[in-house]
Write a structure and sequence with these properties.
about 220 residues, alpha/beta, five-stranded parallel β-sheet, 9 helices, globular
């Protein structure tokens, strides 16, 4: 029997890096659903369409989005034949992803793709509505969060490590705005599933978070 793990939480909570590490340790596949929305946002930006315009849903028809994996399990996002895995990680695309995620037809268009990726596989999937909407029957549901200050500092360090310009206060403001958008959108808002385990990582190390989630999964293997 396959095991699906749903990890939800706000921007900058470390969902992607934690989910990726947990999946690698257990030999599961890792599915970053936020990358799909980022890719739709990038496609809209490249085509001069506002990411908050419902026209994005129609524009999606010209976006051939595929997910593939490197030998080490790293997820790659392919948009119309181009690897955009790094290009979707800019602040502008991040905010755009929050915009497009509020459009019901965009969410509907990505729903089957997300479910099919996890179907029949041992998978760790992260996002903002995985446990509540995408994989409501997931064996394990986790809501990963941290304080705004902690999340902003982590995102700041991430940009600096990549050699990209970063302003801590601007990042903090972006995170607060993203939280507001994600929690108050009409379709599939960010919220903790009733049966999800809340993990606040503000004062936890990366390895501590990974090991805690890994041990939760190992108990049902």
């Amino acid at each position: 029997m396959s095991i699906q793990v749903a990890i939800d939480g706000p921007a900058g909570a470390g969902k992607s890096s934690v989910s990726k590490a947990v999946a690698a340790k257990l030999g599961f596949i890792y599915i970053d659903t936020g990358a799909l929305y980022r890719t739709v946002a990038l496609h809209a930006i490249r085509n001069g369409v506002s990411t908050s315009d419902v026209a994005v849903a129609e524009l999606m028809k010209s976006a051939d989005i595929k997910i593939c994996y490197d030998d080490d399990g790293t997820q790659r996002i392919i948009l119309n034949g181009e690897d955009v895995s790094e290009k979707i990680r800019t602040p502008k695309v991040s905010m755009g992803a929050s915009d497009v995620a509020k459009i019901p037809r965009v969410r509907a268009g990505l729903l089957d793709l997300q479910r099919n990726l996890a179907k029949g596989a041992n998978a760790v999937m992260d996002g903002r509505d995985i446990g509540t909407s995408i994989l409501p029957d997931a064996a394990i549901k986790i809501f990963l969060t941290a304080s705004v200050d902690a999340r902003a500092k982590r995102r700041f360090d991430e940009y600096r490590q990549k050699g990209e310009p970063a302003d801590l206060e601007a990042i903090k403001a972006d995170i607060k705005k993203r939280d507001e958008q994600d929690m108050n959108r009409e379709t599939a808002p960010l919220r903790q599933a009733e049966d999800a385990v809340l993990i606040d990582t503000s004062d936890m190390s990366f390895s501590q978070v990974v090991e805690r989630i890994k041990s939760m999964i190992e108990k049902i293997l």
